[in-house]
Write the structure tokens for this entry.
Amino acid sequence: MTFINKRLFFLFNFLIIIFLTKAQNVAVNGTGAIPNSSAMLDVSSTTSGLLLPRMNTAQRNAIASPATGLLIYNTDCNVFEYWNGSYWSKIASSNYPTVGLTSQTFNYTGAMQIFNIPGCVSTVTVKVWGAGGGGGGYDACQPGGNGGGGAYSTAVAVVNPGDVLNIYVGKGGAIGQSNVSGGGGGAGGFGFCNGGNGGNSGSSGSSGAGAAGGASSAVKNSTSGVLIAVAAGGGGGGGAGNTSGNCKGGAGGAGGVNGSIGGTGSTGGINSANSVCTGSLGLSRGAGDGGAGGGGGGGYTNGGGGGIVNRSSSDYGGGGGGGGNSFGTITNGAGQIPGNNADPDLCAGCAQGGNGSSTSGGGNATAGTNGTVVIYWNY
């Protein structure tokens, strides 16, 4: 190539570069077709495809400050992924199910359970119901208070494959014994925060004991230390007072709401790194034959125990237990009914507050029912 031809060659390429730089949009094809006016880059071919960056999950996670909309192909999961501004989301394909297709339900076992995050999962949706509080005990003629229904809590959490979730499913509160003297308060059960024990009855005569509060249910990412959601248990129903006046046991607080009939909830336990968050004890009557308070529902904070009310020297009504507070997006229970009770994932009879006893033998009192946890793979 002569010196003149070389100069013309470089000048021609320089002009092309200037043209492409100034162009509003660019076409890449073998036909010379102009680009579509709506596209900055218009690539067309009948023999080749567009090849995006390919990388594994570790390489993807090493991208610093990904831009919203950034698109890659994940070679570990064999799917296209894009950064939605908060986490890497998958473009649905035959290799990756759609939202809500896969789930697992956890029922009460009396111990912490484990869920391992599967490969290629970046988010989970959790639904959590706390346990119901137990029904309070009967005195000589007055019924015990009903237990409160468990609260509902939900959250969407960003996770990594291999993360370990700790699952706590709360136990329903035990009933308060009827026609007892000095004892018979229901015992609280296992949960993320245990339900408080019900208060004992009066030390003489026949009166009802307070029922135990329901324990809370929760999901915690033990790998990252992130607490995802907690649903409080319902408070236990108060034990009935003696026969003089209207001294029936107060109803338990419903998963976050203090009981108010026949008594009042007192301040309860405070969560501190999951070590002190048990619902507080229901107050005991001590002397006489008054009824006792129901135990507080276990919760993230303030699982209040039921109080007792002095109506006369020997006439005490049992206060309803205060339901513990929750953590996450919360719906409290309503009376004995658990929060979000119309959700199809709530198992039949779960998280219900128990019935207070209405017979002298106490045979028809029922314990609160256990909570439940459901986890969805949220792609």
Q: What stands out?
A: The helical segments are 3-22, 57-61. Residues 98-379 form one domain.
